[in-house]
C-alpha cells in the first residue's frame, strides 16, 4: 500500500506529535508499505529550527525507510495568538505544492496529522484527486484548546473557527484520535460514528522499562541517595501549567529530601527558570537524546504531569505513555470524569488542575511512602505493556488500514472501535 502522511512535526523532534508521527510512518514502512511524509523542519519544543535544517527551503531525505519531504515554515519566537496562526498557516501553504506533487505517485491513503489542521484541506484535495482514502488523525483539538487556554479570543471568531473545523472533519473518510473522550468530541462535531477510530499514543515498552539500579542522572545532577526526585520532562508551553508546578516546588523548598528536576525546552522555560532561581531544590536540564530517555525517566521517584484545567479532554499528554512504562509513581492534574483521571485510576494520583497546594501535598505524601510508589509504578507498567505497547497499537492501525482500503466505501458500515475502561485500564478494542 502507498501511504502519504502529512504532519507539520516529525523526527528528529524528540517529544510531542512529531515523535509519534515518525514512529507511525516507520512502523508502516517496516510492515512492507511504501510510505512518504510531508513535514516541516524540526523545531519543537525549542521553537527554533535545528542546526543542519532550513526554515525556508524544500528538501528531501530518507529516514527510517520513509521518504521525507521537508517544506518551509515560519517559526515564531513567541508562539501565541496570531503568531501561532501564522506559523500553522505558513506550513499549510508551503505543504500544498509538495502534497499536490504527489498526485502522480497515486497514494492509496493520505493521512493528515493535526495539529495543524490548516494543512487538512491540502491532504483532502490530494485524496480526492487520486481516489485515495482520506484519514485525519487528531492529536488534539487545537481550535477548542486555543480558545479554552486564552490563546485566541472572541465568541464570533470561535463560532467561525468551529464551523470550519466541523466541515473539515466531516469531509474525511476516517477521523482518528487518541482517547475515548476525544472520539466522543468528534461525534459531537458531526463525524459519523462509523468513520471514527480510536488510535491511542503508544510506547516502546522494551526501550522504556524500570531499571534495577539508580539512574546515572542522580550522580551527574548531584542528587543524594536519600533524596526523592520529582521529574517533569517535556515541552514547556502554555498548555502545561508549569506555574503551578513552580508554586509546588516553592511550597516544598523546606524539605531537603525532595528535589525537582525540570527537563525540556519551550517558550515558558525562561520564565520558569527565573522564578525558580532562588529555590535550591530545583534543577534544570536540556531535553535529552532518545538513547538516554529511559535513563532520564528512571531518574524520577515521582513523575509530575501538570495540565491546565481548560485543556482537559481536548488533549491527552503524549508524555504520559513513557511515564507509565517507566514504572514510577505519577501525580497528574486531572478532574474527575476526564479520561486522564480514569487512565490514572489505580496507577497514579490525580489532583485538581491549577491547585498547587494539592499538588504539593500529593508529592509530599508519595515521597514519604515508598510502598505506595512501588505499587502505583507496578500498576502503571502493567497497563503500558498490556494496552499501550507499540506492537499492539500500531499493529491494530496497520490491520485497520488494510481493511478500510480493501473494503472501500463498504468499510464505513463497520462499527467504529470502542474504548472500554476495565479493571486493568483503558483498552481499545474493535467492536464486534
Notes on the structure:
The protein is 38% helix and 18% strand. Residues 409-432 have low confidence and may be disordered. The longest helix is centred in the first third of the chain and has 19 residues, at 82-100. It has 432 residues and is of the alpha/beta class. It folds into two domains: 2-202 and 389-429, Glycogen Phosphorylase B (Rossmann fold), CATH 3.40.50; 216-387, Rossmann fold, CATH 3.40.50. α6 links the parallel β7 and β8 (196-198). The strands form three sheets. An eight-stranded mixed β-sheet has the order 3-4-2-1-5-6-7-8, with helices on both faces. It has a six-stranded parallel β-sheet with strand order 11-10-9-12-13-14, with helices on both faces. A two-stranded antiparallel sheet has the order 15-16. α2 packs parallel to α3 and α8 crosses α13 (356-367). It is globular.
